[in-house]
Amino acid sequence: MKKLAGLFVAGLVTAALTGCNDENKTAEAKKAPEAQADNGTVHLYTWTEYVPEGLLEQFTKDTGIKVVVSSLESNETLYAKLKIQGKDGGYDVIAPSNYFVSKMSREGMLMPLDHSKLPVIAELNKDWLDKPYDKGNKYSLPQLLGAPGIAFNTTNYNGSEFTSWGDLWKDEFKGKVQLLDDAREVFNIALLKMGQNPNTTDPSVIKAAYEELLKLRPNILSFSSDNPANSFISGEVEVGQLWNGSVRIGKKEGAKLNMVFPKEGPVLWVDTLAIPSTAKNPDGAHKLINYLLSAPVAEKLTLAIGYPTSNVKALEVLPKEITQDPAIYPTSDVLQKSQWQDDVGDAIELYEKYYQELKAAK
């Protein structure tokens, strides 16, 4: 679940990498779980929405292993915390999005998975495996798929009105558009509109995308990534950028809501499960990952939060109102023209800089 980290987190990451703030390091390390081996406990650091009530009870009953859950706010905070904690970190299972898997694995922050302890791999969608961000799934396994599109109130609009991301720039939507509160998600739509690579690190292209977004600024009513479906449910917003899981939430609440994927395609992300290199209970971590990706658990999770699951057995028993809704489960045609969000390295600072300027613009 992608959320905006903001400049504060960018500064926190910088502090972690440079080692210039020992006081902050000590304070953050104290917040970490106990960095001691405890085979009867697994520390899970994941998105709040991904652990609905009762999800972990059967795991503890089956294995005798207690799960201590910490709430993940953003990929950037996850990365910064692990950097700050260093070898004293105590998380056993984490849930980075795919573009942070590539970054963290390159930096030695992830433990190679033992596939012999993960029989659930046989149940996972092969189209989701062996992707460029983690060839051979050496460090991670996919859990849930995110795809942003153009959402709209079905009372006043229909899907045929939205064929391109560029439609959001139309004058008729002045002061009506909600965008996700996430720098990369916002820049993605401009880059796709321009025919550019959404993972570009070219400063000139990023600047051009910023200038394109300034043209969109009069149409932007709000930025929201914290339960972004709520504004559609309440009727405050009728057009905007939304994640597929949020569409499911809105529809469950009876909102007159639907979503289409523009011709340029969405930029996809996958939230994964991985084991930090500092994990104190890797055996328990493998057991928990296997459990969380299993068909019964995957079914419960998708029913609760709407995002497509990687488990194909769960797909067979999930209601058709989810699996056959192209706004929630992108069709194969949409997936074929989609791109995967990837790590952009130091260029993220430029994205964030321009993004803050965009939000401040009138």
Question: Would you write up a description of this structure?
Answer:
- The protein is α/β, with parallel strands linked by helices and 362 residues long.
- It contains 15 helices and eleven strands.
- It has a five-stranded mixed beta sheet, covered by helices on one side. A three-stranded parallel beta sheet has the order 2-1-3.
- Helix 3 links the parallel strand 1 and strand 2.
- The longest helix has 14 residues.
- It is globular, with a radius of gyration of 20 Å.
Quick gist of this model?
The protein is of the alpha/beta class. The protein contains 15 helices and eleven strands. Strand 1, helix 3 and strand 2 form a beta-alpha-beta unit.
Topology (SSEs and partners):
Elements: H1 6-18, H2 22-30, E1 41-47, H3 57-63, E2 66-72, H4 75-85, E3 93-94, H5 98-106, E4 140-146, E5 148-153, E6 177-179, H6 183-193, H7 203-216, E7 220-223, H8 230-234, E8 239-243, H9 244-252, E9 257-260, E10 267-274, H10 282-292, H11 295-305, H12 312-317, H13 320-323, H14 332-336, E11 339-340, H15 348-360
Parallel strand pairs: 1-2, 1-3, 6-7, 6-8, 10-11
Antiparallel strand pairs: 4-10, 5-8, 5-9
Helix pairs in contact: 1-4, 6-7, 6-15, 7-15
Mean pLDDT: 89
Low-pLDDT stretches are 4-31
Q: Report the structural category.
A: alpha/beta
Number of helices: 15
Biggest pleated sheet: 5 strands, mixed
Strand order of the largest sheet: 7-6-8-5-9
Notable characteristics:
362 residues; alpha/beta; 3-stranded parallel beta sheet; 15 helices; 15% strand
